[in-house]
Amino acid sequence: MIIPRNPRLTPAQLEEVEKIVGEFGCRIQTIVGAERCIYAILGDERHETMMNRLLGLDYVARVDAIDSPYKLMDIKSSLAEGKRQLAGVEIGKEPLFIAGPCTIDPKNPNLFYETAQAVKEAGGHILRGGVWKPRTMPYSYQGDNAALDILLEARARTGLAINTEVMDTDHLRLVLEAGIDVIQIGARNALNYPLLRQIGAQTAGSKTAVLLKRGRPMAPVDEFLAAAEYIVSAGNPKVLLCPRGTLPSMDGYRNHPDESITQLLKAKSWAPVIVDPSHSVGRAAYVPGAALAAMAYGADGFVVETHIDPKSGIGDDPKQSISPAVLATLITDARVIWKLRQKY
Amino acid sequence: MIIPRNPRLTPAQLEEVEKIVGEFGCRIQTIVGAERCIYAILGDERHETMMNRLLGLDYVARVDAIDSPYKLMDIKSSLAEGKRQLAGVEIGKEPLFIAGPCTIDPKNPNLFYETAQAVKEAGGHILRGGVWKPRTMPYSYQGDNAALDILLEARARTGLAINTEVMDTDHLRLVLEAGIDVIQIGARNALNYPLLRQIGAQTAGSKTAVLLKRGRPMAPVDEFLAAAEYIVSAGNPKVLLCPRGTLPSMDGYRNHPDESITQLLKAKSWAPVIVDPSHSVGRAAYVPGAALAAMAYGADGFVVETHIDPKSGIGDDPKQSISPAVLATLITDARVIWKLRQKY
Amino acid sequence: MIIPRNPRLTPAQLEEVEKIVGEFGCRIQTIVGAERCIYAILGDERHETMMNRLLGLDYVARVDAIDSPYKLMDIKSSLAEGKRQLAGVEIGKEPLFIAGPCTIDPKNPNLFYETAQAVKEAGGHILRGGVWKPRTMPYSYQGDNAALDILLEARARTGLAINTEVMDTDHLRLVLEAGIDVIQIGARNALNYPLLRQIGAQTAGSKTAVLLKRGRPMAPVDEFLAAAEYIVSAGNPKVLLCPRGTLPSMDGYRNHPDESITQLLKAKSWAPVIVDPSHSVGRAAYVPGAALAAMAYGADGFVVETHIDPKSGIGDDPKQSISPAVLATLITDARVIWKLRQKY
Amino acid sequence: MIIPRNPRLTPAQLEEVEKIVGEFGCRIQTIVGAERCIYAILGDERHETMMNRLLGLDYVARVDAIDSPYKLMDIKSSLAEGKRQLAGVEIGKEPLFIAGPCTIDPKNPNLFYETAQAVKEAGGHILRGGVWKPRTMPYSYQGDNAALDILLEARARTGLAINTEVMDTDHLRLVLEAGIDVIQIGARNALNYPLLRQIGAQTAGSKTAVLLKRGRPMAPVDEFLAAAEYIVSAGNPKVLLCPRGTLPSMDGYRNHPDESITQLLKAKSWAPVIVDPSHSVGRAAYVPGAALAAMAYGADGFVVETHIDPKSGIGDDPKQSISPAVLATLITDARVIWKLRQKY
Q: CA angle, corner D117, sides to D115 and D121, nearest 5?
């Protein structure tokens, strides 16, 4: 949809516009209003260069896209059909719960094993644990390959599926060799398109799911879904969308909570939404409220940081991990809200 | 807390700083660290001029306030004690529900009377209805004094308490004469301090409550509570805090939902939080999710736009009012979540 | 422009849509694309109720407005013609400079008189000075009617035109009696529509100009211009648009600087843009950079806080007022940049 | 600085706090105020785990950091000394200008060669040109290794230094083999710490500079500088900070312009600031205003998209590239403003 600066395009301007869209297989339909004309683009608007060339015309005030910038992620795509099974849960039939520490401490593997057992007993389906960590400061702990073995051992002991974040292709190779169940992409890499594409390609046809966090930027819904499209179009449709808070907040939370974006994602896409309230609010006391709110907004589940003894943890655990006892209560209550929510 | 640009203040700088804070009855305590010194202000930091003068010193990098900019609204103030009763509800013992149309249509009073009756049957405690409306465009409907009579008549017919927005002192005089139960201050006037002060003073000692919306600005928590302090310090402690979404949103919602701010308000203040999900999300289909999320975040209740026939409404009703049937279900479910939430 | 959720509306849906827009004198034109249809609204989209009713249809995904929500402020309106003269300056032919303290200290009138004289000598055209002040905390200094006499006396002594902020109708009455030259509306009242309307009506046909600050909210351009439309449509076209920073900033500035919005305002409206860098950045050391940047973005002038002895000032002066010496240099440099800017 | 929820810590709480900070070599100093105590942390606060553990205590309301989360980037670090020479320009003695197309079209190398020549004639110092491009949609043009040869050929023909963006380690290897002069890290990878670290390490001791864009997120100043610290601490201090707009904007710009952040970066760090106005505003007509504003805010130079024939370009060129003629004028004017700015 082209909105000109003046009430209508001159014949020469219209000709130029038609020529541009014609190169991309589109046509123009003029809409004659009482006071002004606007110009609809018929055809596929998903040509960035076409749109950029139209925006570059100084007699054009706005170019509004009607189509979304993704196809496979769209709620109307054929991918919307079919069951989505993960860790024994049929998503959409019951909620999915992922829990575990922010960061695995390689010096204290027992803390992780005990947490893993407690997550299982609390009703969690998938065990999370950070092997490598993106940290704001270069001088902070950045992770350790040895933690991957601890994660695998915990899977062996508990039977829980496992989830960890990868930050580059070296990490990716290691977790694929280990047969990870869920690969997590963090907020800082959420728009790292070469990495998204590689993950999609290397897990194509496998059982591995990909948990894609929302970009820290307050990424618009369409940009978030377009990032997921990189993974899906490269071959892996088992993507989970994970809001986790946006801009840093001044007001007592770590980030601006965005549990509410769940409703918008659900309106536009078929993909499951698994919310991360821990990074959103950033303090343990606020996590249960945010996790339950996520269920009220219609989330398919949550991923919540949990530690058998938060104050002994490293990474974000001391401030934002909840105890397994709180997790157990939370899962019970989340099931109640999930059920209430189905009627709307 | 004064943080200097250099590792420490010179003796002359320190003397200047001490002189400034001394004028306001404060003292400086130097904190000697390994690499730098910082300077604590002992006494009451709530002197804006003192803080501004410190910030004006070019050798000062930051001045961090420790105290909050309000006293009566603070969770530690003596106002935190005591029961808060409104429309027969003891707030904190059970949730409070306010519902009704965005705008009363003075040409169709029966639509309002029927809605009022339906709100009562659905379990609402207070009836809302806009008499005057702040509209973005000067050419849109701006309200009508005649609608106040309709609101009063609905109270007489149903026995429900009533709530409407005032935008200036003329409105205020009229609603006080009418014995309004709850005066609403909208987002656009949320920092209109002369109006806040007048409302506080003119309702001092009365039974009238004041529902203060959060400023559209993404007002920080402290600024929101300081605005409420204007009302309370002028004489009326019956203030209700009402988040209603912040910046306009690009993504399908009307505003950025801020139901989540409830937890922060509760951590800092004793005041009841009554969330407005209708203005937050701005479309009827998204309202129940947001209303239930508000309860999950710990709200004391909600105010939700409801209309017996939304598409016949004026103002925002056609897009964001829910039907009385949805309201009834929502109130039932909200009670369940409110109860679950008490355990955290 | 109506974008349906499904690729096209059913005949019954189309009929409903046509009926709604028909009530407001509009028609629908269907645009048939390869994969989907969209529906243009022919006629005047500035009916909020029509747009709300369309948004209320559950089969409608989006309703995009093509028209701006204002008429008189539009760059195409007939108001764009004609000269704009203020304080001896023809706006658009040379830049306009407003300067003076944040707040007039009624206990020290000489500080104000000396500042006024210094503003004149530095090349300022209009003298600003706060008589009444909106303050975050109810316990801070709120202004004093006596300061108005000091402002008038300074005008008498220097011959400079004068500018002050009004917050309510009592203030308005007083400044109109005093024959103020420029009435300022602050960020907190920037969407206080009853006040805007009254100011527009009571200054209709007079020589008084109105300096309207941008709402603190990060008010979108259209909302800012629509607020100005309240003043202009009530009778006074002598409106000046004043960006002054938006959301509070965490990063060392007082607010997020928005000098850049100047270019967008200029693209959409004929109204002069007078930027306030003092409230934008909030510290004297950053003011010159922001003031010069405003000129580079194409502003018609600036309003900058200046004080003969900033550290003796009250209000924001100690932190953000520049000295008259800096003002003089700044005005000289601003003229250079203003001139360079005309060629683009 | 620890601010407790209650007016003071109990002895047991204080002991726990002292124990935690003691593990990291810090001590606590109690500051006894009239109404409350606060607790200063003496020692190095840059231990994320220590800060997280303190935040995890439920009797702690806030933990304010005094130190910045970087050392080498700090304006007080020894790196602030010494000359910074790039492409024949001594930064700080005269402004630096980078220009060229958004994206090199491998099918039309002559367009690039002609643009390169025109950039040189307009007074540019470094030639930019995108070889690989992060695009929102996976279906858009993503770049081509062949474009790197074109870039190198343009360097050979003009003698200009060259700059291009890398998105992963494959790109990095190729540009290092080619002896690139300036490596660009785009907004989407601005917090991709493994990549930042690798670039820093692999260019350690070389003449290669690194242009680090500000993260799209509205990255806070400290996070931006901490990201640069990854590069510098890995061995390469030749880092250039590049603001390029933040959140997507609704209002006619592509992003929210952030030229203003220049002043904050300059107050905290010694690193040169080279602003990108093209991505900030996103339309050619707005670029000169933003580029000149950047100089007014104190930038050391700019990087601006320029194309010999913008409408023939690919990538963002058609909408945001300026012509070489505009570039030439812009560089002349920028030199004037740069010079004016030095006096403040």
A: 110
| CATH assignment of B2-63, among 3.30.70, 1.20.1550, 3.30.1050, 3.55.40 | 3.30.70
Find the DSSP H helices in chain C.
Answer: 11-23, 48-55, 109-122, 146-158, 169-177, 193-202, 221-233, 261-268, 277-281, 287-296, 317-320, 324-341
D-chain residues near B67 (CB < 8 A): 36
Nearest C-alpha of chain C: how many angstroms from D220? 7
> Residue C284 phi/psi, 5° resolution?
-55, -35
Flag if B31 and D42 touch (Cβ within 8 Å).
Answer: yes
Integer CA distances (angstroms), B234 to B194, B211, C139, D69, D81, in order: 11, 15, 11, 43, 56
CA D264 distance to own-chain centroid: 13
Category of C205 on φ-ψ map: left (φ > 0), alpha (ψ -120 to 50) or beta: left
* Count of CB atoms situated within 10 Å of the CB of B251: 17
Mind listing the pLDDT tens digit for each residue in D292-309? 999 999 999 999 999 999
Please judge whether B53 and C223 are an interchain contact, meaning their C-beta atoms are less than 8 angstroms apart: no
The predicted-structure confidence for B157-190, as pLDDT tens digits, reads as follows: 999 999 999 999 999 999 999 999 999 999 999 9
Residues in chain C with CB shorter than 8 Å from the CB of B252 are 62
Average pLDDT over residues C306-332: 96
- Among A residues 130-149, those touching chain D with beta carbons less than 8 Å apart: 134-142
| A46, C223, C226, C266 from B139: Cα distances, Å | 37, 14, 10, 23
User: C227: distance to nearest CA of chain B, Å?
Assistant: 7
**Which residue in this structure is represented by tokens 């000098």?**
C259
Chain A 67-96, CB below 8 Å of chain D: which residues?
A: 69-70
Residues in chain B with CB shorter than 8 Å from the CB of A289 are: 260, 262-263, 296-298, 341, 344
> ipTM greater than 0.90, yes or no?
yes
User: Where do the domains of chain B lie?
Assistant: 2-63, 78-341
Determine which of C21, C31, C63, C256 to mutate to test the interface with A (most A C-beta atoms within 10 Å): C31
Q: Distance between CA atoms of A251 and A248, rounded to whole angstroms? A: 9
Q: Which of C3, C49, C4 is nearest to C23 (CA)?
A: C49
**What's the CA gap between D148 and D162, in Å, rounded?**
10
* Confidence (pTM): 0.95
Q: Do C311 and B218 touch (CB under 8 A)?
A: no
- Domain A78-341: CATH class, spelled out: alpha beta
Mean pLDDT for the stretch of residues D164-190: 96
Q: Name the token pair of A11.
A: 């014949």
Q: Using an 8 Å CB-CB cutoff, list chain C residues near B229.
A: 137-138
CA-based nearest distance B118→chain C, Å: 20
